[in-house]
Amino acid sequence: MPDELLDRLRRFHDDAFPQYREQFQTLVDEGQHPTTLFIGCSDSRLVPYLLTGAGPGELFLVRNVGAFIPPYDGSHGHHGTTAAIEFAVLNLQVRRIVVCGHSHCGAIKAMYGEVSPEAPNLNRWLDLGREALLPMQAGPEVLRRTEQRAVVLQLERLMEYPMVRSRVQSGQISLHGWHYVIEEGEVHVFDVKTGGFVPASLADNSGTGPYHPYVGHDGQVLLDEL
User: Fold this and answer.
1) Residue 12 has what DSSP assignment?
2) Cis preceding linkage at 210, omega within 30
């Protein structure tokens, strides 16, 4: 049986890599200097390099279920996402942090349903997004609103990181909240001035912080219970 992954690796080496050989060599000789930390959902339909048109060395990527960010509580443990944020901000000195959710997100849908008892770690991880839930049945519009609310919840949590907050307040780092609508190929960016998401085709900026409690299009504050 053919090994499809092996074939793809060989095609990369033989066909794709030669086009970028000098660029990769420069990135090895001079080190990486990405300007953007991109925190995105692990969903296979979200392709950051395709979405942003970025090339090698431009994005420092963090992918996890739901594009969630753990709270900065100073606890000791294996916090991969937190470690990546610290490294990107302190070592790589990125200038932007993007949190990118998307339509039809399995993590958001899962929070409205039952999580398998065989997935206790997933269940605990989803706690990081549950404050964004609405007390309604999970129809398409509710899921869309929850996906967007979850993005802003993560931005607010980012502002709890001391190294992020200080750099946002001093203008060294900008924060960007995005919601990618897969079937439209359109990214909706969070506009802190209006408190809502705006299609990138109509927006006048890609979204910057600092962020205040999110007020959705319906006037609801994110953390309020309905």
Assistant:
1) I
2) yes
At 80 the three-state DSSP class reads helix
Q: Tell me what pLDDT residue 209 has.
A: 55
The CA angle 155-157-159, to the nearest 5 degrees, is: 75
H helices present in 12-47, as ranges: 17-30
Query: Per-residue pLDDT averaged across 193-204, rounded?
Result: 90
Q: Is residue 222 over pLDDT 50?
A: no
Contact 86, 167 (CB under 8 A): no
CA distance 90 to 97: 13
Cα–Cα distance, 203 to 83 (Å, whole number): 32
Tokens representing 73 are 């509580």
The rounded distance, in Å, linking the Cα atoms of 157 and 145 is 18
Phi and psi at 176, nearest 5°, equal -135, 125
Q: Cα separation of 188 and 180, whole Å?
A: 6
In 151-190, which positions are buried (b, 16+ CB within 10 angstroms) versus exposed (e)?
bbbbbbbbbebeebbebbeeeebbbbbbbbbeeeeebbbb
Q: pTM (2 decimals)? A: 0.89
Of 110, 116, 145, 144, residue with least CA distance to 128: 110
What percent of the chain has pLDDT above 90? 83
